[in-house]
Amino acid sequence: MAATPSNQEVFILGKTQEGKTFRPSDWSERLAGVMSSFRPGGSGGHRLGAHLSYSPWCVPTVIDGVKCVVVNTALREHEPMAWAFVMDFARDNHLQTVEACLIPDPPPARA
After folding, report:
1. Taking the CB of residue 50, how many other CB atoms lie within 10 A of it?
2. What is the pLDDT, as a whole number, of residue 3?
3. CATH code of the region 14-41+50-65+75-100
4. 13-61, pLDDT tens digit by residue?
């Protein structure tokens, strides 16, 4: 899947094209863990503690009860092989993908 320029993220959903839940249940954390060293400014593998956090370009989350991985399109420009890897993962496992732009929740209102 090639993301269009107007979208900033591709959501890889934990649902197959047939609508079945993808297994294993921790697939999103595993995929994001593999991608954790790909981050802005180069590989995070040389920074203290970098191995303990996900890349901001590949983040596991849950949306409407469905596990997914949000992949920022900046990964495509900075690490083309890593982009190909995650997109191939989605395609090879027949996972649904959605182009979108993640909008953060607004800050809580002050009392």
Report:
1. 14
2. 46
3. 3.30.70.2340
4. 999 999 999 999 999 999 999 999 888 875 544 555 555 689 999 999 9
Return the pLDDT at 39: 84
Residue spans per domain, the chain: 14-41+50-65+75-100
pTM score, whole prediction: 0.77
Token representation of residue 73: 């399109």
Beta-bridge partner residues of 13: 68
Instruction: Map the chain to HEC letters.
Output: CCCCCCCCEEEEEEEECCCCECCCCCHHHHHHHHCCCCCCCCCHHHCCCHHHCCCCCEEEEEECCEEEEEEECHHHHHCHHHHHHHHHHHHHCCEEEEEECCCCCCCCCCC
Neighbours of 84 (CB within 10 A): 12
